[in-house]
Amino acid sequence: xxxxxxxxxxxxxxxxxxxxxxxxxxxxxxxxxxxxxxxxxxxxxxxxxxxxxxxxxxxxxxxxxxxxxxxxxxxxxxxxxxxxxxxxxxxxxxxxxxxxxxxxxxxxxxxxxxxxxxxxxxxxxxxxxxxxxxxxxxxxxxxxxxxxxxxxxxxxxxxxxxxxxxxxxxxxxxxxxxxxxxxxxxxxxxxxxxxxxxxxx
Length: 201
What we know:
By secondary structure, the protein is α/β, with parallel strands linked by helices. 26% of the residues lie in helices and 19% in strands. It is built from three helices and 15 strands. The protein is globular. It starts with 26 loop residues before the first helix and ends in a 9-residue tail after the last strand. Mean pLDDT is 87; it is low at 1-17.
């Protein structure tokens, strides 16, 4: 695992206030996050998956600005950059989305769409033609650590996906999936993982 530094909400600006979402409050946090994404995606600056993640991380940094004008300028810059990057990479990843370290876009060869209300842990592996979003109502998925989502799959609604879950290709998940399980099919069938896989290997 690459230690890319903290990626979390910071303290509230005033007592009793809801904490503002400031995932990358400093330039050092932005550099660390981008460096981690660069390592995960093969240390290639031309890799579309890395460019999509770098744009996303910049957007996270932009919404973390405290000052109104700095946030507005950074946001406009992010919007212009994303205007070109998102259609080219076909990765639609709003900066409001809460994502941990080392997200790995395995094949950047098709559309990936993630809802801004989704919460994703560390080391998600995701393949192309996948959607993580709502299901005709409020609520978006919460996904744990060390999860893999196969090609042509979707995770929809206010569901919780546990740690070390594997979601197979062409799978539609609309229910919770416990830790250390496999989800396959449409609608998904939940099966326990057996053997060494149960230890997260």
